[in-house]
Amino acid sequence: SYRDQILVLTYPMIGNYGVPDENDVDIYGLPKHFEWIDGISVAGLVVGEICTTPSHWRQTRTLSKWMEDQGIPGISDIDTRELTKKIRENGTILGRITYELPNPEKKINFIDPNTRNLVAECSVKKPIIYNPTGSPRICAIDCGLKLNQIRCFVARGARVELVPWNYNLDVTKFDGLFISNGPGDPVVCRDTVNQIEKVLKRSDIPIFGICLGHQLLSTAIGCKTYKMKYGNRGHNLPCIHHGTGRCFMTSQNHGFAVDANTLGADWEALFTNANDNTNEGIIHKSKPYFSVQFHPEHTAGPEDLELLFDVFLESVKERLNGNGQTITVRENLIKKLSYKPKFESLQMERPKKVLILGSGGLSIGQAGEFDYSGSQAIKALKEEKIQTILINPNIATVQTSKGLADKVYFLPLTPEYVEQVIKAERPHGVLLTFGGQTALNCGVELERSKIFAKYNVKIMGTPIQSIIETEDRKIFSDRVAEIGEKVAPSEAVYSVAEALEAAETIGYPVMARAAFSLGGLGSGFANNQEELKILAKQALAHSNQLIIDKSLRGWKEVEYEVVRDAFDNCITVCNMENLDPLGIHTGESIVVAPSQTLSNKEYNMLRTTAIKVIRHFGVVGECNIQYALNPESEQYYIIEVNARLSRSSALASKATGYPLAYVAAKLSLGVGLPDIKNSVTGVTTACFEPSLDYCVVKIPRWDLSKFIRVSK
């Protein structure tokens, strides 16, 4: 799709993880880390800053060296933000990379690549077969295909024959037709369109198209296409599925679109872009024909809709079995993408009065991160005309200021005091996830002593059961194992003797952590029995439960902020990488957002896992998931899930401009994520993943001037 384009990357630092080995191939002979067999497709690359010292276990050379080897020019130290503004004002523009400033008198020739048949240049010249013994037989028309499309088919057992763009198709030689993505204007590919028309006329073979393939199928059925002003290019574009109303993150790169108003009576729109309302897919109402404008095969980008390959192959196999079509592709997609919201998460009536548990008393050395989440929640509820009651022991905080909450109680966050407030105020709902661990622990105690049930107070947002499951390490480990994910080998113990026994089983060195504790109190590493004895004594003073973990010292610590609504729409808003290796609490560590040394594969492997885990626990609102990632492989463990707004959430909100706490409060009322507006643009949806054209670094600062007689 990038053929002969000058590509501008908006993220400022490029090449941090270098270029992997080109000769690394899989069992089908496909390169493992590249999306095409034949070098680099772009005409040139424009970046803000190029990294000369990549940091990744797979890298074999720098990005610059690879481009030099391939003879592709690149230019760095360009203000890409300013350049992006120019492209935004003018739409896609022609450009050149030159060595010196051009002479204003001299006319510069710009060549428009779209006047050429770019598809013919990209396409294979003769058929290639992958997985020759596989079944069913898929014929893939190569208009400029990405290799992951072939991988998605062969991984599911199919045989793929990749044919040139203008190949004369024989319907007796294949069971399903796939039309790939590619560059340029669909009008140029008349030969391909003729072949698709022939297949549609002569058979009922299932057809699936992606990107340019979507535009070509649309043209073959008589639809019109048009050139967009900007096009859609990125890994975070939200698409709404018409059959279910659910929103999915997609990867896109296209400058042309299909006019859905020109669809015939037997066809309907399948997906629509949630931001600009352009068409993102079409489907036949009864026959097995469908196509999408985005890239479900991802690489790079989100893996949310890879199941489209399953749906296509199921329709192919069903036709081969000769049972006739038991379920249409349209119905099958609706069935696979449907989600039935749980009754509790969609409360029948909206609460009129809500109690918010604020953070515990702040002490020296703590920042007011939970003040941010509390005040955002109040703001969101006020917009919905809901009365807010706040319990918070901190006098000098924003959320306790005049004009925010309707009523403030300056009381300690203990079950006894909270019960008195509930008794006096009789709120309809309560929010537990906006005041950090203190509010959460208090809420769990109130639930266990049945206070909420006694006064008929509904817990809004994430169900209390999910909170308990993520907090108790043993239950958490078992629940995570149910979906085939792993937490680091660990044991929960209640005494020093048990701690020593557990360490013998797991093997030294170990990490000891106090459960249900604030800011990682009583945690540390132990290399032997003596060190563990001292640590265990300290930790058991803070908490009755102590966790002994396998030591992952030196591993990368990565975390994701995840948002999910009651209708199962799920996004990851921000991911962060700790500069310090695992073992230093995030609050005290230097943190960089977004992550700098994760390749696309690692980033999306952890993103997909995060979404899988959050769905499994049924979180509604915002939560944070932390991973340990081996710096020498793709091995990872889940460290923990905070089913609440954490200290990182405040950082993520400020880093991305995405108001996590505000959105989480709206979601707790049963509002759908696609229905919330993006607070920055006011037009687009909040169901998107921010892409940053800057890098954020958080450095902890200890303000010693507050302490008298301390040496600095």
TrEMBL record:
Catalytic activity, reaction form: hydrogencarbonate + NH4(+) + 2 ATP = carbamoyl phosphate + 2 ADP + phosphate + 2 H(+)
Single annotated GO MF: ATP binding
UniProt KW keywords: ATP-binding, Ligase, Nucleotide-binding, Repeat
GO biological process: 'de novo' pyrimidine nucleobase biosynthetic process; citrulline biosynthetic process; glutamine metabolic process; UTP biosynthetic process
EC number(s) stated in the UniProt entry for this protein: 6.3.4.16
SMART domains noted in UniProt: CPSase_sm_chain
Cellular compartments per GO CC: cytosol
The keyword Nucleotide-binding appears for this protein: yes
ATP-grasp domain residues: 477-669
Matching CDD domains: GATase1_CPSase
SUPFAM superfamilies given in the database record: Carbamoyl phosphate synthetase, small subunit N-terminal domain, Class I glutamine amidotransferase-like, Glutathione synthetase ATP-binding domain-like, PreATP-grasp domain
Principal EC category: ligase
Keyword Nucleotide-binding: yes
NCBIfam families per UniProt: CPSaseIIsmall (TIGR01368), PRK12838.1 (NF009475)
Name listed for the protein in its UniProt record: carbamoyl-phosphate synthase (ammonia)
Provenance organism: Porphyrochroa sp. 16 BKC-2015
Encoding gene (name): CAD
